[in-house]
Amino acid sequence: MKKSNFFLFFYLPLLGILVIFFFLSSINRSTIRNKVEELVQEQLQATAEILKVNMSHLLDESYPASEILSPYRDERNIYFMALMDENRNILDWRSQFEGYLPISQKQAGQKDSWIIDSPVGKIYNVFSSFTTPDGKTYFLYLGYSLSNLQEMIGQSRRTFFIVFSVLILSAVAFFFGLYRVQTGYLEKQREAEKEKKEKERFREISGFTSGVAHEIKNPLNSLSLLFELMQKKAPEELRQSISLGKQEIQKIASIIDRFSATIKPLRLNKQSFLLAELIGDVHRSISQEAEQKNVIISFDASNPLSITADKDLLGQALLNILKNSLEASQKGEISIRTAAHRKTKSISIEDCGQGIESKDQKYIFDPFFTKKEHGMGIGLYLTKKIIKAHGGSISLKSERGRGTTFTIQLPGGMK
Length: 415
Known about the structure:
This protein is of the alpha+beta class. It has three domains: 3-145, Beta-Lactamase (2-Layer Sandwich), CATH 3.30.450; 169-263; 270-411, Heat Shock Protein 90. Helices cover 57% and strands 21% of the residues. α1 (3-60) packs antiparallel against α4, α4 packs antiparallel against α5 and α7 packs antiparallel against α9.
């Protein structure tokens, strides 16, 4: 799925869900806040009624106003308190606002309770009258701090945004992971489809090649026998020409054998050996050709790195790469390096050739793909087949004018 389609099918619904969640959560928090405020106000009203009953008895017993308010001076939640007579003259009062009593006669005359904003937060005001047993009327003015309620609302808001942020991050991570899984699945599906097509194409090529090899080798065997008879009975001056003809027949047979080798399933005969020994054997088999082109093939013969593999097949794979590198190099050096990693062992072959064009690199291991005037394009294909049969992989890095590096990764790793 393309990124644009993924956005439409996943992120837009996610965005819609988050918007709805935010909207409903806001309504829910607002409703809860209003209900809590109503509950707090009811409790404060009840507290004020209790205070008025106590004060009524104390006033009836002729206690002075200062002694009546004195027990409440250390109440942290009561920001201010005032006791007034029937004419609303203040008999005594206390306030945490440094001697300031924020009373509004206008508000006090219009309603019994209201909320004001202050530097220390919201304060719930209660202004109500009460009557003592002797029939006198007094007024009580209270200011209760709503800081606990504000802290609870603030904590609720912070908790909401934390949960909302975690939800967003989790959802984004989930859908991104889903996108990666889906992308990986589609990539594997494409690779499987490509491999299926390659297998079908290879099966067709194999069938065709097998048929051609069978049809050609029988006449070749007859021709080879005929040339041997001719060579025995022919005059001396014709024997050299007949020998050349026989060599050409052998070349054709060799080409057919190479084709047959590409289509046959590989059977590995694994054994443990030193990579340096194998590289040394391959180097000796190609050293004369390297000397003729003034190319030096360097490797560390003292490296004790060992591996378990089919020595002959792996040697054939390395030889194919080295021949390819040697054909691409004009003087200079071909470097062979081996290394052990956590799970694999690697062999890299770096040449000094002109490199491979980027448009050709993805086809370089395909059967019968070649840019050479002479060659059938099966050497690197067979190399990859050998490496894959060992459970490994082969890759290349090439840049025009700077040479090519082939890297083989084989199972094994450090021990």
